[in-house]
Amino acid sequence: MLAMNYRGPRRVRIDQKPEPEIQHPQDAIVRVLRSCICGSDLHLYNGSVPDTRVGMTFGHEVCGIVEEVGQGVENLKTGDHVLVPFNIACGKCVFCQQEMYGNCHESNPEATAVGGIFGYSHTAGGYDGGQAEYVRVPYADVSPTIIPEWMDLDDAVMMTDVVPTGYQAAEMGGIQPGDTVVVFGAGPVGIMAARCAWLFGAGRVIVIDHIDYRLEFARDYAPAEVYDYKELGDVVLFLKKTTDWIGADVCIDAVGAEATGRAMQTLLGKQLHLVGGAATALQWAINGVRKGGVVSIVGVYGPIGTLVPIGNVVNKGLTLRGNQASVKRLLPRLMEHVRNGVIDPKALITHRIPLEEVAEGYRMFSAKLDNCIKPVLIPPRARS
């Protein structure tokens, strides 16, 4: 089959790889109809995530058709159209029982934090992902969800990560009616978080980035006030001024390990990889939120230490919340929002790219070319 093949930092290509096979009675094989390149994939692409091994296939946002099921699978059958959440979750461990599907203890038992994730390095279990013609889906009775007849495939693939991650970012903020919410990062997740902040009663939503076309998209889609941090000078000072010197009620870090904006963070976290990422956005969030405020973190950082002003967290009485989105928990509510027109996931998709051109897709998305917000990969058989 055709599959994306990681060859080292900033080097990916399309290759022929063996088709996946059933390895466990609870497995399913899904023929991919849509897969996305995620901003989180760029952390892998740029070499920022430890133990990303040559030969791996990325891709944790997938929908497709069930081609084969293991003997133990009861909830799916051949021919079902499914969306596959990025969490690989057993459904039975102590964390899955608390609906913390992103922290499944069985799908990634050698880790102490994150559960299994499709196509996201061996720190997340070493599972090949769905930027391919086929993907093996473990625990097929748990997370894969049949796509309703009324739902478009482009909406479905966005429900595997972007929509629930953006929604959970707002949810973790504990937004109260009238709150001022600041979102750092105008990528797809940041834009969705800004959109979802209104659903929780925000009175004011601000998005900060430095790419003009992304800010324009966020302004129109969220909708939100948008600011280029390069034009603000001191970001924290700006946030203080615009909130009567109090600070935002909620700050959301939707950037993660490869934030720009501070030279020392960039040097240590992005260039030398001496810490778990450039925590510039997180630092701005901690310093820009009000006393007693909430910082919600969905940006991806590495597992090693990161330069964070923890003293300010303590002295300001802040609440920090972060996690991988529990997609399965959120899907019923979010599907209703899509059906009712409250959220329009596919509107974030700007580029539909043949799977064979995956290398160009990564180059374009990484370099912020052609006003790319969200690229979707389409395998050959899905285009016929």
UniProtKB/TrEMBL annotation:
Record Gene3D superfamilies: Medium-chain alcohol dehydrogenases, catalytic domain, NAD(P)-binding Rossmann-like Domain
KW Methyltransferase (keyword) present: no
Organism of this sequence: uncultured Pyrinomonadaceae bacterium
Record-stated family: Belongs to the zinc-containing alcohol dehydrogenase family.
InterPro entries reported in the protein's UniProt record: ADH-like_C, ADH-like_N, ADH_Zn_CS, GroES-like_sf, NAD(P)-bd_dom_sf
Keyword Oxidoreductase assigned: yes
Residue ranges occupied by any Alcohol dehydrogenase-like N-terminal domain in the UniProt entry: 25-144
Molecular function per GO: oxidoreductase activity; zinc ion binding
Keywords attached to this entry: Metal-binding, Oxidoreductase, Zinc
Domain Alcohol dehydrogenase-like C-terminal stretches: 188-270
Alphabetized Pfam families for the sequence: ADH_N, ADH_zinc_N
Protein known as: Threonine dehydrogenase and related Zn-dependent dehydrogenases
The protein's required cofactors: Zn(2+)
PANTHER family to which the protein is assigned, alphabetical: ZINC-TYPE ALCOHOL DEHYDROGENASE-LIKE
